[in-house]
Amino acid sequence: MNKVLMKGNEAVAEAAIKAGLKFYAGYPITPQNEIPEYLSKRLPEVGGVFIQAESEIAAANMIYGASACGVRVMTSSSSPGISLKQEAISYMASAELPAVIVNMMRGGPGLGNISGSQADYFQAVKGGGHGDYRLLVYAPFSVQELWDYTILAFEKADEWRNPVMILGDGVIAQMMEPVIPKVPELKFFDKTSWALTGAKGRPSRFIRTLLMAEGELEKHNWKLQEKYQRWKEKEVRYETYFLDDAEVVVVAFGSAARITLSAIRRLRQEGLKIGLLRPITLFPFPEEPVRQLAQEIERFIVVEFNVGQMVEDVKLAVNGMAEVYLYGRPGGSIVTAEDVYDALAKYTVSEKVYVTVK
Fold first, then answer.
1. Is 145 helix (H, G, I), strand (E, B) or coil?
2. What residues contact residue 184 under an 8 Å CB cut-off, 6+ apart?
3. Which end of the chain is more exposed for a tag (fewer CB within 10 A), N or C?
4. For residue 137, which phi and psi values (nearest 5 degrees)?
5. Integer CA distances (angstroms), 34 to 56, 233, 244, 289, in order
6. Which CATH fold topology does 238-349 show?
């Protein structure tokens, strides 16, 4: 199959079409604007519906309704826009409705800027809305992975009846790279037992999230938690680099992992035994692989483009068996491989928790 030069946002949009997307609702915000722009043209061409909603809140509730009818749905935005969608995302998680949600993160808080950031990690993996819910969260680090994991996200959303998030950022959204536009054989998921398709010839049904009977909501919450536990058993994805002889392990995701990998290659050429573990699923986090490494490795360095969020999950997995350091850069700063190289080269610094290079 021939490679195609694509921008990250365009790869997400076309992959969604290939995955069977039939309804998209969204609202413009940089740096993800190419997604709705692309879909406004392409989705009607394949018999789908594109809506530019009057707000992010409206868009999220529109995909709630369309998903309840059994079609494949998606919305996309960037950090402050995703914040506005949180209530509807909580509703969809409770109603067990499949949806794909794309967040191309930008610097914050507030309106912030339009540069790439990773400051929405907590929002994505801890449940940014109300209630004890979770999303399956993928963190691609190339345009090819944006393509691959967008398609997988639709499959997993249907398989688990749950919203799935693609967590990218302004760097990967705007990056252009060759992509092999491969499409695996799509699975068929029977939705006839729950989708609202009209009650002709069958008893009526409804989808609700208000559970008022004594103990009903607690029972429902335990059901959801059992699903999330199964994710931890079946859906963890990660990649490792240079761990065979590593004495120091770096943990980084998304564009931070990509930049970090360049720095690690240079450090290894200089004789430093350093490796990388790259989480692909941020939830479920690869805590068991990190825990196993901590039994042999004395030092971990977390690189993330925020003031320290994933580092907390690394610390929980390490559970005191090793030192954990952080190199964090907030606010959508343009971080280079040279910046990360300088930080990692100072890994012997004894101060725990925070290691920065200005």
1. helix
2. 151
3. C
4. -120, 120
5. 16, 35, 41, 36
6. Rossmann fold (3.40.50)
Among 258, 330, 331, 285, smallest CA distance to 125 is for: 285
Fold topology of 4-235: Rossmann fold (3.40.50)
The residue count for the chain: 358
**Residue 70 one-letter amino acid:** G
- Name the residue type at position 69: C
Amino acid identity for residue 40 in this structure: S
pLDDT tens for the chain, residues 1 to 358: 899 999 999 999 999 999 999 999 999 999 999 999 999 999 999 999 999 999 999 999 999 999 999 999 999 999 999 999 999 999 999 999 999 999 999 999 999 999 999 999 999 999 899 999 999 999 999 999 999 999 999 999 999 999 999 999 999 999 999 999 999 999 999 999 999 998 888 888 889 999 999 999 999 999 999 999 999 999 999 999 999 999 999 999 999 999 999 999 999 999 999 999 999 999 999 999 999 999 999 999 999 999 999 999 999 999 999 999 999 999 998 899 999 999 999 864 444 444 443 3
Q: Where are the domains of the chain?
A: 4-235, 238-349
Report how far residue 241's alpha carbon sits from residue 257's, in angstroms, rounded to the nearest whole number.
11
| 113/60 Cα distance (integer angstroms) | 23
